[in-house]
Amino acid sequence: MALDVLRESGRLREAHDRIDDQVEGLVRSQAPQTALGPGAMDRAIAEVVDGRPDAYGRWAWYPWSGRLVHVLPEAEFRPMRTDRNRDKITRE
Q1: pLDDT of 33 higher than 90
Q2: How many separate domains does the chain show?
Q3: For residue 35, what is the DSSP state?
Q4: DSSP structural state of residue 67
Q5: Which among 16, 18, 77, 24 is positioned nearest to 47, based on CA atoms?
Q6: Is residue 89 one of the residues assigned to a domain?
Q7: Distance (Å, rounded) from C-alpha 91 to C-alpha 27?
Q8: Residue-number span of the structural domain to which 23 is assigned
Q9: Nearest 5°: phi and psi at 41?
Q10: Separation of alpha carbons 29 and 42, rounded Å
Q11: What are phi and psi of 77, to 5 degrees?
Q12: C-alpha distances in Å from residue 17, one per residue of 13, 21, 46, 71
């Protein structure tokens, strides 16, 4: 796998993998009225990533800084990031 090759290449200085935090934000944005405790949130995150957090989403490689960043898939990233502006900015 390309990630394994990159990790073994010596070019990787830092891997920033906060996919669980991003998935939590996604889950909260999809059901803001639902209060989930830690156990329920852990189960919701596991369901979204289908038990394979390393394979879920996308990895972005920044060769100039040696950083590898794990992010949500584009279709989920955009609504999750813009959710904080709900009722402030509309799609129109």
Answers
A1: no
A2: 1
A3: -
A4: E
A5: 24
A6: no
A7: 20
A8: 2-84
A9: -65, -40
A10: 16
A11: -65, -50
A12: 13, 9, 15, 8
